[in-house]
Amino acid sequence: MQLNYKKELTPVVFGETSVKILNTRLTADRLGFEQHWHDRIELHLVKSGCLELCCNDQKITVKKGELSIVSPTVLHSGRSGSEGYECYVIMFEISDLFNGTVSAKQYIEPIINGDIRFQYKTDIPQIVKFAEKIVDMQLGGGEYHPLETVGCLYRLLGLLCQYCIDNKHSAPQKIERFDSIINYINANFTTDISASDISRKFGYDESYFCRKFKKATGITVMKYIRTQRLERARQLLQKTEESIRHIAISCGFIDAAYFTNCFKDMYGISPTKYRIKYIDENKKRKGLI
Q1: 178-285 in CATH: which number?
Q2: Were 85 and a residue from 49, 178, 221, 272 both cysteine, which residue would form a disulfide, CB within 3.0 to 4.6 Å?
Q3: Phi, psi angle pair for 100, to nearest 5°
Q4: φ and ψ at 127, to 5 degrees?
Q5: Is-same-fold flag (15-163; 178-285)?
Q6: Quick check: 2 pLDDT over 50?
Q7: Span 15-163 CATH architecture
Q8: Where are the domains of the chain?
Q9: Each residue's pLDDT tens digit, 174-227
């Protein structure tokens, strides 16, 4: 899936090993990272608390000792649970591991192309152990040769391919003119558009179009539209003083009550409380309170 909208644009510098580790901590009920996607693989090794991860249209709770798996091009966002969390984020560029071997063509190339996707989390001890080893190699201060880390990446990737391939969402079928459809939705999601309108505009039977869209993206058409509306509304809550009703209507929701329910389901907090919390946190960052 090639979605320019919400693609992470900040480059990640990997160095000699094609892997980067970040140690992140977050207090309770906080947004950790906004919805985005990228071409790399990203793992979250939770050391305490829990990470509430939203991948496409699924919500996943990743607890202590578990490992989340975010495949390339998967839309994802994350927030902390009621106890906060600490985790290690393991990022590696899958294309750097591609070579001319048969196994690379059979497994790594389909991951790069999006034909193989992984389950969103695992607690298999062998996999978690190798993730921990890679973190230790990068951050533990030991003298490891860069090729040792690369070797562990291959081992970890092999275990993911052996135990964690998501057969339900792998080998997605691409639909014709997909980029044009996504661009159209991104330009018009605040209007009263529906799956019926979009399929008719691009010459598809509605049922066929909805099936193809879900297979290509892992998310339904209306879920995608609703997500874009909520993200726009969240930005307006931060940047404007417009009323909740005005924001709801301007972002394409039929009324404020429905918008509030959708917002709470997506972000775990009402629009009003989100705005107050954002203002307070912004003041703290500026040293005003």
Answers
A1: 1.10.10.60
A2: 49
A3: -90, 10
A4: -70, -45
A5: no
A6: no
A7: Sandwich (2.60)
A8: 15-163, 178-285
A9: 555 577 888 899 899 999 999 999 999 988 889 988 988 887 777 889 988 998
